[in-house]
């Protein structure tokens, strides 16, 4: 029995969601273990990364959480990485992770959580 792409799509989407969310959660955990103060811009980012990453791994509230995290990463790119001299060069300004997370989360906000997301069980 042949397997077509539409059959695998929800599982590939779930793999993207879980992998990206886990990596994102690790960024928050690194900040937490590094002693970033909660009452700071980096502390706010840390909270979003920990809570948002965990929610996305579980597949809870995928669309709104992914949309918020996409915005966080766009903000991070423009505030921390982009400058007038190297705006279009994320490898030079070290913003490639922020740009990738931004667009992965934007895609998840549009596509949903895929297979194994707990959002499907809430309905």
TrEMBL record:
Transmembrane regions listed in the UniProt entry: 12-33, 39-62, 74-91, 97-118
Keywords noted in UniProt: Cell membrane, Membrane, Transmembrane, Transmembrane helix
Subcellular location: Cell membrane
Principal subcellular localisation of the protein: membrane
A single cellular component GO annotation: plasma membrane
Membrane topology, record value: Multi-pass membrane protein
Keyword flag Cell membrane: yes
Top-rank taxon: Bacteria
Similarity field: Belongs to the DoxX family.
PANTHER family: BLL4328 PROTEIN, OXIDOREDUCTASE CATD-RELATED
Name of the featured protein: DoxX family protein
Lineage: Bacteria, Pseudomonadati, Pseudomonadota, Betaproteobacteria, Burkholderiales
């Amino acid at each position: 029995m042949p397997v077509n792409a539409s059959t695998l799509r929800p599982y590939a989407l779930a793999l993207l969601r879980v992998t990206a969310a886990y990596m994102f959660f690790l960024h928050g955990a690194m900040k937490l273990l590094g002693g970033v103060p909660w009452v700071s811009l980096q502390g706010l980012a840390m909270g979003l990364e920990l809570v948002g990453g965990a929610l996305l791994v579980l597949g809870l509230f995928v669309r709104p959480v992914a949309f918020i995290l996409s915005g966080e990463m766009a903000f991070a790119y423009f505030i921390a990485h982009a400058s007038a001299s190297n705006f279009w060069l994320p490898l030079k300004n070290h913003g490639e992770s922020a740009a990738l997370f931004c667009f992965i989360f934007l895609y998840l906000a549009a596509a949903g959580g895929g297979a194994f997301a707990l959002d499907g069980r809430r309905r």
